[in-house]
Automatic annotation (TrEMBL):
Residues engaged in binding Mg(2+): 163
A Pfam cross-reference name: FMN_dh
UniProt lineage: Bacteria, Bacillati, Cyanobacteriota, Cyanophyceae, Leptolyngbyales
Main localization of the protein described in the UniProt heading: cytoplasm
UniProt subcellular location: Cytoplasm
Cofactor(s) essential for the protein: FMN; Mg(2+); NADPH
Binding site for FMN: 68-71, 99, 127, 194, 224, 274-276, 295-296
Family: Belongs to the IPP isomerase type 2 family.
MF terms in GO: FMN binding; isopentenyl-diphosphate delta-isomerase activity; magnesium ion binding; NADPH binding; oxidoreductase activity
Keywords in alphabetical order: Cytoplasm, Flavoprotein, FMN, Isomerase, Isoprene biosynthesis, Magnesium, Metal-binding, NADP
EC number(s) given by UniProt: 5.3.3.2
Name by which UniProt lists this protein: Isopentenyl-diphosphate delta-isomerase
Organism: Phormidesmis priestleyi ULC007
Length: 344
């Protein structure tokens, strides 16, 4: 099987496994259950006063929500991306697409990522694995995927554990930081670095910030385990066991947020990893994140119908709004400054 066919098969497998198999973290949580908001029984607000608008990398958003990077490269993935793009446009959410490596390998599937016409005003993130910078990818390939999506930024994802578990994974991560720094300097759009569900520590965040990344998505542990996903599609017993052994590996999302904020109060910060509702989104904002990313809930809804996606978006907005109202904060900035989130 050639490289493109392998990549496309992997894309299809990932969607199927995430939707049909139990690949959520088993014992580790996102850590947000340790936090509780102080209830304000007398908010000096009308519910209609609540304003969820924000900006990220200078771009306006209707709410602090990112539809996290998921898929592309197959006809089913194209349907998912088109439905998600419509939601991003309608609600003014940010949206990332899955790794566009498959489109670099075969431009015939580029249209599965080409969603700008559906979401002309949305904040869109292109996506490539950072490790591909060690496998013949450079500025040209990165610029190509940005232009394909007409993206506002490029996400480089870090996934060393997934590559270890994946059969024939790309495991040469040597010297990547220097190559990321060059890309940050040369690319036409900002570079965002994210994990894929195992978290970014404060120490690594500090190195990435020094390298010039424009934003960080911590993508902590507590949600979908890509070790479990790769275990499900492993071609031998060793890889299958590796995925099971490391199913709960990683830094919980809440710990990642506090660690990154401890070393940098200003770096634009996305919290993702196991977020499932608007209350958890609000907790990440109160902890210091600027944006909250969700993947699995949006994937489930998108695979069902456009109506299911609208219902999900509506309830997420209502849940965040309720948190602000019941803590006495009219804006996200006020929530961050309120001190109403307690570690219990």
């Amino acid at each position: 099987m050639d490289s493109f066919a392998e990549t496309q098969t992997r894309k299809a497998d990932h969607l199927r496994i995430c939707l049909d198999e139990d690949v959520q973290c088993r014992d580790v949580t996102n850590g947000l259950e340790r936090y509780r908001f102080t209830h304000n029984c007398l908010p000096d607000l009308n519910l209609s006063d609540i304003n969820l608008t924000t900006t990220f990398l200078g771009k306006p958003l209707g709410a602090p929500i990112l539809i996290s990077s998921m898929t592309g490269g197959t006809e089913f993935a194209k349907l998912i991306n088109c439905r998600l793009a419509e939601i991003a446009q309608h609600y003014k959410f940010a949206m990332g697409v899955g790794s566009q490596r498959v489109a670099v390998e075969n431009p015939l599937v580029a249209d599965t990522f080409a969603i700008r016409s559906i979401a002309p005003n949305a904040v869109l993130f292109a996506n490539l694995g950072a490790v591909q910078l060690n496998y013949r990818y450079g500025i040209d390939e990165c610029q190509r995927v940005v232009e394909l999506l007409e993206a506002d930024a490029l996400i480089l994802h870090l996934n060393p554990l997934q590559e270890c578990v994946q059969t024939k994974g790309d495991t040469n991560f040597r010297g990547l930081l220097e190559k990321i720094a060059v890309l940050c300097d040369k690319l036409s759009v900002p570079v965002v670095v994210k994990e894929v569900g195992n978290g970014i520590s404060g120490a690594i965040a500090q190195k990435l910030i020094a390298a010039g990344v424009a934003a960080i998505d911590v993508a902590g542990a507590g949600g979908t385990s890509w070790a479990k996903v790769e275990s499900e599609r492993a071609q031998d017993d060793k890889q299958r066991r590796l995925g099971a052994t490391f199913a709960d590996w990683g830094i919980p999302t809440a710990e990642c947020i506090t660690a990154v904020r401890a070393i940098s109060p200003d770096i634009p910060l996305i919290a993702s990893g196991g977020l499932r509702n608007g209350l958890e989104i609000a907790k990440t904002i109160a902890l210091g994140a600027d944006l909250a990313g969700l993947a699995f809930p949006f994937l489930q809804a998108a695979s069902e119908s456009e109506a299911a996606l609208h219902a999900l978006a509506d309830v997420l907005i209502s849940e965040i709004t309720t948190v602000l109202f019941c803590t006495g904060n009219a804006t996200l900035t006020a929530l961050k400054r309120s001190g109403s989130l307690l570690n219990c």
